[in-house]
Design brief:
By secondary structure, the chain is mainly α. The protein has one domain. The protein has 15 helices and no strands.
């Protein structure tokens, strides 16, 4: 298989002209968001929530990549671990501060808050979570848990760079073993409370997994682009092997299928059950222009990336993967909007294109802010874990001790010049 992503014969990118882009996005997007907040507070609330849930999925997806790296003791993912840690640490305080407008505008977003005086049976069944105090307390607890996980994981990661001792590795594995359970619970609660809760009568036990699948899918596309840029700039090149691109592309392909399976299963179970308290969610999204948005998700979120990623060589060809990854961002934005926007009676006819400038403004503001903070974190620390015990394996080399835990099969190190004499085949 020919790998076309290696950059040893390609000139580094000139990123100097892109230096001010985050500030421009932040300033321009903030200006549009401010105008929208003054002109139409209700629409601003929906636009802000849409942008927030989009970038929250990127931060949570990055946290997931860090957790599974430690849980599976992976070697290939060592080079992408550090920037994934930086993205995940944006959950607090940055994403918490971006969530505050949602908390203050919650009565505009969640109709059940105006029904607390005379709650229906669905709202009673979900108390005390679906109360004003429950909403705020639960939200704060979610960010507190994310802060604990991301802070401790990056603390011990940087400590590993300093000492190279075994303790940081063991600590990160410990926090990951607990963190994967907390991750599943908190992600599900966030999706239920902040998005599904907009229509509290609706029931779906698969909604958390649905949001999780889309989040990791978009995060993998982001990780691919970041890895390629850092490779092109010779930052990650010393510790990269061609297989990293193939593995990220393969996971992107896997989550394309996984997301589609979860979405289809949720639709099939609800529609087959034919209960009004469940089917109304899809009925609203099959009327007017939302029918066409649903078709865009079916073909754009599944068929196009699925067919594009079928070939092995595509996963290792940047000029083909770049548009696929950008497409993933677009489809995830459409998918999040498909979940949030039809709740408003003003949006029942289809996507509110007249307010697209406001939606893009909120998105651009958050994109610029998060990018600036990420670059600041990235520049302040080594670009990859310099003393990770799996770093040699990530580079495509094998440890001279012939054990599976050190990389490779038992017989793959027999003929290495530096292998111990007792393991050198035919040598004394």
């Amino acid at each position: 298989m020919a790998f076309k992503n290696r950059t040893s014969d390609v000139q580094p990118l000139d990123l100097s002209k892109w230096r001010n882009v985050p500030m421009i996005l932040m300033a321009g997007g903030g200006f549009l968001a401010l105008i929208g907040a003054i002109a139409k507070p209700q629409e601003f609330a929906y636009a802000w929530l849409l942008a927030f849930m989009f970038f929250l999925s990127l931060c949570l997806g990055s946290l997931f990549l860090v957790l599974v790296h430690h849980l599976f003791d992976a070697g290939w993912s060592v080079p992408i671990r550090r920037f994934s840690e930086h993205i995940s640490t944006l959950l607090f305080p940055c994403m918490f501060l971006l969530w505050l407008p949602i908390g203050f505008l919650s009565k505009r977003l969640y109709p059940w808050m105006s029904e607390l005086a005379d709650p229906d049976h669905a709202l009673k069944a979900k108390a005390p979570l679906f109360t004003i105090h429950g909403f705020w307390i639960t939200s704060i607890v979610l960010f507190a848990i994310w802060f604990l996980l991301t802070n401790r994981l990056r603390f011990w990661s940087l400590k590993q760079d300093e000492t190279g001792a075994a303790e940081p590795t063991h600590k990160m594995r410990f926090y990951s073993s607990i963190g994967i359970i907390l991750f599943a619970l908190t992600l599900t609660m966030a999706a239920v409370l902040w998005v599904k809760g907009m229509q509290h009568e609706w029931f779906s036990t698969m909604y958390g997994v649905y949001y999780f699948a889309g989040s990791v899918w978009m995060t993998l596309a982001t990780a691919y682009i970041i890895t390629m840029i850092l490779d092109r700039q010779r930052i990650l090149t010393p510790v990269l092997h061609d297989h990293q691109y193939y593995f990220i592309g393969s996971l992107l392909f896997a989550f394309t299928v996984f997301y589609s399976y979860i979405h289809l299963a949720q639709y099939f179970i609800i529609w087959n059950g034919n209960m009004p308290e469940e089917t109304f969610w899809y009925v609203i999204r099959e009327r007017g222009g939302w029918w066409y948005v649903g078709l865009i998700i079916i073909f754009g979120h599944f068929f196009i990336p699925f067919l594009s990623l079928l070939r092995i060589d595509v996963k290792n060809t940047f000029r083909l993967m770049l548009p696929i990854c950008i497409w993933a961002w677009l489809m995830h934005f459409v998918d999040v909007g498909f979940n949030i926007l039809p709740v408003s009676l003003e949006h029942r006819g289809g996507y509110p294109l007249q307010w697209l400038w406001l939606h893009l403004g909120c998105w651009a503001f958050m994109a610029g802010l998060l990018t600036m903070l990420f670059l600041k974190k990235f520049k302040a620390h080594p670009p990859y874990p310099i003393k990770d015990p799996r770093l040699i394996e990530a580079m495509g080399h094998y440890h001279p001790v012939p054990t599976q835990i050190s990389g490779g099969e038992l017989d793959e190190t027999d003929d290495l010049r530096d292998a111990p004499p007792q393991f050198q085949r035919g040598r004394q």
